[in-house]
Design goal:
single chain, about 375 residues, mainly alpha, 2 strands, about 0% strand
Length: about 375
């Protein structure tokens, strides 16, 4: 039983990456059938709000919850605007214009971009003399270079190849003119996601109820995304779900992609830390690449393969550099807990020795019980 519990976080993260891959493929298929990406964002956040809100209400009743002031409201609104509304809208635009494989691969840029942003604002310390810091910088450069390769250097087809004339430019053949624009959207989404991670720090400090915070983010994201969609999609017919598949896509994306994943990710971070969770991100890229080629018949190019390998390799270099930070944090916490344990044990032993010396060698059971009774 202990062995199964030990491997449970890894199993949960594998299942979560499979779920992410399924959401990416379903949403890509729905948009190819004609569903508006902006409307999809609204429905996804609305479903996520309905899924998370009941749990947030129950936890708030049990714990009492925390009140939301003007500062908390402003932070949550801005975090939702950047991390939910802007992020998901440009992500789905990029997913539609590029491919699900490219969308999944650019997600591995988030740790590297977050490292750069955190270094600029002073949350991340960079020591050029440290091998770990050099690894963070080198991994970031490798990730960005890999992303550029995926966007610009397409090369020959490796999967779903067809006998076609040679491409006229390095950006792709006719019919794929929007590939570069989609890559730029996806790169912008990774930047928004990284900024969202950094803004989570003051937002969580101002409003420490994480379940309620997630519900508020989904709710504000729904309202903001609805305003964006109504402005960009004046035709109300685009809001109609034309098939049960589109309805299924919205439900899966909302419940699994935005609702259940929050709890699974949070639990795994508590159990093993954020570094452990980040190591599983490339698994989603592998799953999406294989299934997209088999099910959606997406084209896969040599440049995409080289770039994806570079992004994943750079990710692990950055994670290796970050590993020391988590070790230092654990060491800083451990001595305090160890000192507390040592002092507690020492006090218990001193009390025990004192009782043994004060107690007569021959005593009745009742006397012993009375002396040891708290």
């Amino acid at each position: 039983m202990g062995g199964w519990e030990h491997h449970l976080p890894a199993v949960a993260m594998v299942g979560l990456q499979i779920g992410y891959a399924g959401v990416a493929l379903l949403t890509r298929a729905a948009m190819l059938q004609g569903m508006s990406p902006r409307v999809l964002v609204v429905y996804r956040q609305a479903v996520a709000t309905l899924a998370v809100a009941p749990t947030a209400c129950l936890s708030r009743r049990k714990s009492g919850g925390s009140s939301m002031g003007l500062r908390s409201f402003s932070l949550i609104f801005v975090v939702s605007l950047i991390g939910v509304t802007l992020n998901q809208n440009i992500y789905y635009e990029g997913l539609y214009l590029a491919t699900s494989t490219m969308a999944s691969a650019t997600g591995n840029l988030v740790p590297a971009i977050t490292f750069v942003m955190a270094s600029i604002i002073g949350l991340e310390k960079v020591n050029i003399r440290s091998l770990r810091s050099i690894a963070k910088i080198a991994g970031t450069v490798i990730c960005v270079t890999g992303a550029i390769f995926m966007a610009l250097l397409r090369g020959p087809k490796l999967m779903n190849a067809q006998i076609l004339p040679a491409a006229k430019s390095c950006f792709g053949s006719e019919g794929t003119d929007h590939w570069l624009l989609g890559c730029l959207f996806l790169f912008g989404s990774a930047i928004c996601w990284s900024l969202w991670l950094i803004l989570q720090v003051p937002a969580s400090a101002s409003y420490p109820d994480h379940v309620a915070l997630s519900a508020w983010l989904c709710f504000f994201g729904t309202l903001q995304s609805a305003a964006v969609a109504l402005f960009l999609e004046p035709d109300l017919e685009v809001w109609t779900l034309n098939s049960s598949f589109e309805l299924l896509c919205c439900l899966v994306a909302g419940i699994l992609g935005s609702g259940l994943s929050f709890f699974v990710q949070a639990w795994c971070i508590v159990q093993r830390g954020p570094l452990f969770c980040a190591m599983f991100n490339p698994l989603c890229t592998v799953i999406v690449t294989i299934l997209a080629a088999l099910l959606l018949h997406e084209e896969f190019y040599m440049g995409s393969l080289i770039g994806a390998v570079g992004v994943i390799g750079g990710l692990y270099v950055v994670l290796w550099g970050k590993a020391e930070d988590y070790q230092v944090m654990n060491k800083e916490r451990d001595p305090e807990s160890q000192n507390d344990r040592k002092s507690t044990i020492k006090e218990a032993l001193q009390t025990s020795y004192r009782l043994d010396l004060e107690e007569p060698l021959l005593s009745d059971k009742s006397t012993n019980t009375a002396e040891y009774k708290p």
